[in-house]
Design a protein that fits this description.
Elements (H helix, E strand, L loop, with lengths): L6 E6 L4 H12 L4 E8 L3 H11 L3 E4 L5 H8 L5 E4 L1 H7 L7 E4 L7 H9 L3 E4 L2 H18 L3 E3 L2 H10 L7 E8 L9 H4 L4 H4 L9 H9 L1 H13 L7 E5 L5 E7 L4 E5 L5 H9 L30 H12 L3 H17 L7 H12 L8 H19 L1
Parallel strand pairs: 1-2, 1-5, 2-3, 3-4, 5-6, 6-7, 8-9
Antiparallel strand pairs: 8-10, 10-11
Helix pairs in contact: 2-3, 5-6, 6-11, 6-14, 10-14, 11-13, 13-14, 13-15, 14-15, 14-16, 15-16
């Protein structure tokens, strides 16, 4: 019998949707995973609760203002406590960490991911914005350091699962599936009246607020298109999107002979999380099983890029390249945050993103510093457009 070697996991963003489900995977597989690092930005109460249960070596609270509370709760349990952005980027370099699960929201995942790659750590990537913002930089660094990036997004996990064993067979194209979100089929006139509460109700997935809004606007699918290009080394024209309301087929790969492979299953993020954490093993699970009898019809349709313009803007940013996906992402992070504060209308979000893409200076071959500056400038411009 093969000896089981435990992986020491650093979970960046352990209090969010992906982070908490990753800990459920750890619970189900205690012989395979050990929690080494936990981090959170603001949710110090849940971070403390998690730390007391999993006894990590280190925890990091991103918001310095919560440091004393976390330190006082955990110091007597021999758990090291740090705070701030630099600490977050440093803990991923620890010798005891085998795999870094980046489940941070948005641009904040970029710096820790870079530091983890520089330290030679394999990455389980749930932070698509890292590859959206700096895909060329991240993938070239990973190649140079011999680091593997295992996708956690259900769609990219599906692609990854479909190409295992097919590495010598060129991909003709990949087909990312989209549920269409809660407003599929609506006109622009109907979307003008959409409320925050309506946008936060996703038909199939239980996710954090930011990604739920992105799914409603189809920006999430746009970000996934850009992420897929870098993860799988594709040209923009090799990435397609089809709306599949049932969310049973998570994505597909078409090979040069015309054959299509699909990965199917019930909508449950724990499966792609576990696959990324355990790769190359498929660990036994008690996840609910898909039953064809419960889904007599699986349907497909083309996405409406005219009504949901974010998807078209993402393809445009991907085709242009350079720092344009960084602009797209930064503007989107601002407008989603303002929509959640009810300061921006649903359709206004894509208007502001498009305006930023037109106004921010284009850089064809950006450096890391260029990405940082582009992100900062775009956020300022987006807020100006809102005020």
């Amino acid at each position: 019998m093969t000896e089981i070697i435990k992986k020491n996991i650093a979970i960046l963003g352990s209090t969010g949707s992906i982070g908490t489900q990753a800990l459920e995977v750890v619970d189900a597989n205690p012989d395979h995973f050990q929690v080494e690092v936990l981090t959170a930005q603001n949710n110090c109460d849940l971070l403390i609760e998690q730390a007391l249960k999993y006894k990590p070596n280190v925890v990091v609270i991103g918001n310095d203002g919560h440091y004393n509370k976390v330190f006082e709760a955990l110091d007597k349990h021999d758990i090291k406590v740090y705070a701030g952005e630099n600490a977050l980027a440093s803990v991923v370099e620890m010798d005891t960490v085998d795999l870094v699960l980046t489940a941070l929201v948005g641009y904040s995942g970029l710096k820790p991911t870079i530091r983890a790659i520089e330290a030679g750590k394999n990455i389980a990537l749930a932070n698509k914005e890292t590859l959206v913002v700096a895909g060329e930089l991240i993938t070239s660094m990973a190649r140079e350091k011999g680091v593997n990036i295992y996708p956690v997004d259900s769609e990219h996990s599906a692609i990854f699962q479909c190409i295992v064993g097919e590495f010598h067979n060129p991909i003709e194209k990949i087909i990312l599936t989209a549920s269409g979100g809660p407003f599929r089929g609506m006109s622009r006139a109907q979307l003008e009246k959409v409320t925050k509460a309506q946008a936060l109700k996703h038909p199939n997935w239980d996710m954090g607020a930011k990604i739920t809004i992105d799914s409603a606007t189809l920006m999430n699918k746009g970000l996934e298109v850009i992420e897929a290009k870098w993860l799988f080394g594709l040209k923009p024209e090799q990435v397609d999107v089809v709306v599949h309301p049932q969310s049973i087929i998570h994505s597909m790969v078409q090979f040069e002979d015309g054959s299509i492979k699909a990965q199917m299953g019930l909508p449950d993020m724990k499966l792609p999380i576990q696959y990324a954490m355990a790769y190359p093993q498929r660990l036994k699970s008690d996840f609910p099983r898909f039953n064809f009898a419960n889904y007599p019809a699986l349907t497909f349709e083309q996405p409406d890029k005219k009504t949901f313009r974010n998807l078209a803007l993402a393809f445009e940013a991907l085709s242009k390249g350079g720092n344009m996906p960084c602009v797209l992402n930064a503007a989107n992070e601002i407008v989603v945050a303002e929509f959640l504060k009810e300061k921006v209308g649903f359709l206004e979000m894509s208007d502001i993103v498009e305006h930023c893409m037109e106004k921010i200076a284009f850089i064809n071959a950006p450096t890391y510093e260029d990405y940082v500056n582009t992100d900062k400038e775009t956020r300022i411009k987006a807020l100006e457009l809102i005020d």
